[in-house]
Amino acid sequence: MVVASVLKIVQVGNPVLRQRARALSRDEILAPSMSLLVEKMRDTMRDAPGVGLAAPQIGESLQLVVVEDRPELLEMLDPRERALRERTPLPFQALFNPRLAVVDPTPVTFFEGCLSFADFVMLVPRARAVRVEALDHQANPVILELRGWPARILQHEVDHLRGVVCVDRMHSRSLCRASEHARHWQGQSAEAVLATLAEGALETDPDLAHEANDNEANDALPLDKPPA
User: Fold this and answer.
1) Is 203 a catalytic residue?
2) pLDDT tens digits for the chain (228 residues)?
3) Contact indicator for 89, 146 with CB cutoff of 8 Å
4) Alpha carbons within 13 A on the beta-carbon side of 106
5) Domain coordinates in residue numbering, the chain
6) Catalytic, out of 68, 112, 157, 211
7) CATH code for the structural domain at 15-212
């Protein structure tokens, strides 16, 4: 495989991550320069490595995301953990001007990270199933019906196009470095982690303990309501 190039991924604090990305015209999607950008984003995502990347994350305020969850990444997980997360392979796709609708709003909470918030993970509730309508790299309409981890990936990336970062939706007391997650929390359910965090909060501030047990209190944005 010829690597187009690896781009710099911007980090939280860069204003581009807080802007609403602009939609792309058919002519823009079909332009050779856009094909090159998609290739660069694909290579950057794989190099990171990650399972999704939105154009704002490489400094471009455009409604474009690339996603891919390769089988070899899934093989690194314990089969029980893979089943619990409903994590299935997601073929590479470039999606322009995506529109996401929640199909099953049941909140499912897992630790997730973000390439624009490097080396940190946090518990984030996401809807279990979504429908995504978008244009592909040839400007043809595509519809994706996603459930489980693929649905989480698309929710995370489409959020970036709205100026939303996962820290806006997280249980704030769960924020930790990836290395500390591996040391203290890996293998524990979200419910167990939140219960432990609530116990710690109770020792210092009863109000914090209440928030740690409240799925909505720690979420700046409701699952089914993107920012206006």
Assistant:
1) no
2) 455 589 999 999 999 999 999 999 999 999 999 999 999 999 999 999 999 999 999 999 999 999 999 988 888 888 888 899 999 999 999 999 999 999 999 999 999 999 999 999 999 999 999 999 999 999 999 999 999 999 999 999 999 999 999 999 999 999 999 999 999 999 899 999 999 998 866 555 555 555 544 544 344 444 544 433
3) no
4) 6
5) 15-212
6) 157
7) 3.90.45.10
